[in-house]
């Protein structure tokens, strides 16, 4: 490329010079006879045609290549891709912060009163709530509100018993098919790991819950039975907007605005997806503290052990030399 | 008393007590009164409150308008979602004016198409995305500062 460009530059300069010469000559000598200058310019144009054309071809092919392969190519339209969720400054996402457990309690309330009618949370047992946002008695009372199958009794019959702390949260539908049948063919996904399962995590869920516009933008086609949500890939989501202001009544007196409920339930779902987060961060601090002490110690030990080796000095003191001749027996001095 | 007892006692003294221990005993041991969330107590309270209210009404007439006002205030006190107001402000801010300009223009164009041709040749989803992205990004820190 550079070679080509350089040759092109080289060709341009004499071209310009020739043109200038030709212009001045024709201006001065057009009236006179000679046609040799015209021949000269023609020949110089011919010699420059090849490199100039090659340069043009090179530039053109690069331009074509760039417009063909150099641009971003999106397989999907923005609408199909969905609007990327905005990054929100989640407090619990900071690496020195825990979950806000009051928020978890509120979020669980929102889940139980709003989401649980369609979405299961099948990987979370009641015992997980104990000590996180509920007391034992509260969790037990909650578990006992539901019935679970017993082990087969002596006649082989399976009876029902009230729930225990070790039971898992009940699902609203018996199976996926029942869920589909009840929801116009759309399956409400299990929310246990939803924060981990979706691109954007908490931001996505918060945006999805709060992002329903009053009406879809002009020209947008929303299929029947679907709702417009910019954050859902394809923008048509079967779930309608569910969170409205003052839908639930928080027992700690927090104002239940839409975004407050969405924030709480998102944080709760993040807890459901990674209940180990608080412990993990605590453990991380311990690891950092201990390993930094150990590292400092190892540096000190290394320096301690190497100090004599690094600071020693090898000195060679040659033995006192005397001339070997002096050691020979001297001839008797005759003088 | 062995040395292990000493360690367990020391642990109990200095460790955070487990949540199992601190659950308050509520209303005896029956399962009919779980810790919270039942209507029973509130019903009782309601009855008592109603009686109180009735007696008050009977006794003092001066309270009536005041009570009404209070009720109305409670009803009027609908919480407004800060997200909507903040994003509205952001949409009209200078920061998002290009996106808003494009969106408004698109809406005008598409509604014109629908009116003249009966159907839209394009949609404003992309313009809407840009506007929504700008508005939410502008509102995000302010919103989370307001939420609990």
From TrEMBL, chain A:
Q: Where is region (Disordered) located?
A: 17-44, 145-170
Q: Which GO terms describe its cellular component?
A: mitochondrial inner membrane
Segments forming domain Cytochrome c:
102-255
Q: Which reaction is the catalytic activity of this chain?
A: a quinol + 2 Fe(III)-[cytochrome c](out) = a quinone + 2 Fe(II)-[cytochrome c](out) + 2 H(+)(out)
* Comment on bound cofactor: Binds 1 heme c group covalently per subunit.
Q: Which PANTHER family match?
A: CYTOCHROME C1, CYTOCHROME C1, HEME PROTEIN, MITOCHONDRIAL
**What's the protein here called?**
quinol--cytochrome-c reductase
Q: Which organism is it from?
A: Amniculicola lignicola CBS 123094
TrEMBL record, chain B:
Record key words, sorted: Electron transport, Membrane, Mitochondrion, Mitochondrion inner membrane, Respiratory chain, Transport
Q: Where is this region: Disordered?
A: 14-99
| GO biological process terms held by the UniProt record | mitochondrial electron transport, ubiquinol to cytochrome c
Keyword Transport part of the UniProt annotation: yes
Q: What is the membrane topology noted in the UniProt record heading this document?
A: Peripheral membrane protein
Residue ranges annotated as compositionally biased, kind Basic and acidic residues, are: 43-67, 80-99
> Compositional bias (Acidic residues) spans?
68-79
* PANTHER family named among the record's database cross-references: CYTOCHROME B-C1 COMPLEX SUBUNIT 6, MITOCHONDRIAL (PTHR15336:SF0), UBIQUINOL-CYTOCHROME C REDUCTASE COMPLEX 7.8 KDA PROTEIN (PTHR15336)
Q: List the protein's name.
A: Cytochrome b-c1 complex subunit 6, mitochondrial
